[in-house]
Amino acid sequence: MKRSEYDYEDQIENNTLQITEDSYITQLSFFQYFENLEHLIIRHCPQVQPVLTSDFITELVLEHCQVRSTEQLNLPQLRELSLSNNDCQDIISLQFMQKLVKLNLSRNSLINISVLTKLLNLTDLDISKNFNVDHSPLKYMTQLIKLNAGSTNIKNSALLKTLVNLKELDLSKNIDCDISSLKYLVKLTHLNLSDTCVQDISALEPLIHLEDLNVANDFCANVFYVDITPLKNMKKLQAITSSNMQLLNTHIFNQIFSLKKLDLSKQITPLNLSQLNVEYLNMSYTEGIDLNHLQSMTALTSLHLQYCKLTNISYLAFLNLRDLDVSYNPGIDISPLEHMNSLIQLEISYCNLKVISALKNLTTLQKLGLYMNKYIDITPLQYLIQLTDLHLSNCEILEISALSPLYNLKRLDISQNQIIDISPLQKMQFTSLRFLNNRVIDLSPIKKHPNFNTYVYNYQQQPTNEDLLASNFMHQIYAWTTFIRNMPRRLKLSTQQFLTTQEKIRVAQKQMELNLQMFINKVNQLFIISQMESQQ
């Protein structure tokens, strides 16, 4: 049944109205009469027409709504606007929104953004994922404090050197961008240069106020050797992300006493970090790590060691870790975990585990990932009564009675198992429950849950035409993705051309998958209703 304007007015809380995936809403015009509405947030409503006049609204979000133009938006009091994930090209009318402070135009089809130079109060701008945008107007926007221009094909940072008030800058995924002019932006505190394939960071030496630096190289074909000497005078630097590159002169880290977070994943050879004392360390995808070096890191609370071919982690028992990820290390001995009583979050998925008795003493654990450990005995989980998040998919589990004492569970994934009886979940109140591809034949134990209609599951039944259609749809998406991966070989595109095309396809694919999931959820809901009616 179509909703009236009064239905929406009743949903306003704290001057805010949020609407998501509402197929009935097509007009915004009646919102102009809601004097108590200041923040209007609409997402995934492709039928909505962006026609709105209001003297009250100060924040507007229209994301994933297929907006093409802002021509009929008349919002003189607007301070924040997000039109992310649309197909917007015409933004001329934005010049009349003189109070705009924050503007998100990411993932659109923008080319000309010269109109933005008239927004003198604008300090926060996001134009990322606009692959053909003309960057030249940016040089006139000297009042900007935060700018995201990632994935916009910027080749030269010279046009940004006038933006001397910038504190946060994102130039990620602008491959082979010349960063030499960044030396003029001395107020920068946050800088993201990930996947720009930068090799020389000497231009960053004057940026002594930097607090967060990302020079990760995950998107680039080659692994570079990067001299980090220019960082030595950055006394405020707290976080460095430099994955998939080999760092030179790493003794510089010992001179940056403010350093708290360090991502050194995908190193060619492991580094000796015995002199460091960071709080967060990521060394995933690095083989041959000597964990003995970590014993001196008394401040370390979060450690990520995925894909490191680890077997012995006994040295970690001496650390006061709260967050540990050792996933994707088949053959690892997890017995030392029984002494790590300070753990709050633990990931040990894809480790070929069968016995997890070492976990039963971790009574403070709140989040646990155990997926893809075939034929695992989950009995010890009954002691982990503080768990709020548990991931047990793809473990060939037959029964889940061990979960019945876990009344604090809010998010549970038991998909891809052999579970028949879900009655142990009867007294739990989940915000998220997934049990796809099991052998469940009776949903009655959880039908009274308040969030039952949001759970993701499959009921034991013969496949319908809708199921077959959905399966075929996903097969087409997979084929499409495979084709895109092979495009450089087939079409002999340059690297940048390929990445631009791939990103556009990825956005379209994500939207298609979202629409498909909405369709499947609706089919499942209709099936449940029909079953309940038949039982009556």
Could you explain the architecture of this structure?
- With 536 residues, the chain is α/β, with parallel strands linked by helices.
- Among the domains are: 127 residues, Ribonuclease Inhibitor (Leucine-rich repeat, LRR (right-handed beta-alpha superhelix), Alpha-Beta Horseshoe), CATH 3.80.10.10; 108 residues, Ribonuclease Inhibitor (Leucine-rich repeat, LRR (right-handed beta-alpha superhelix), Alpha-Beta Horseshoe), CATH 3.80.10; 59 residues.
- The chain is 13% helix and 15% strand.
- The chain has 4 helices and 25 strands.
- The strands form 3 sheets. It has a 21-stranded parallel β-sheet, with no helix packed on it. A two-stranded parallel sheet has the order 3-5. It has a two-stranded parallel ribbon with strand order 13-15.
- Helix 2 packs antiparallel against helix 4.
- The radius of gyration is 26 Å and the shape is flat.
- The two termini are 24 Å apart.
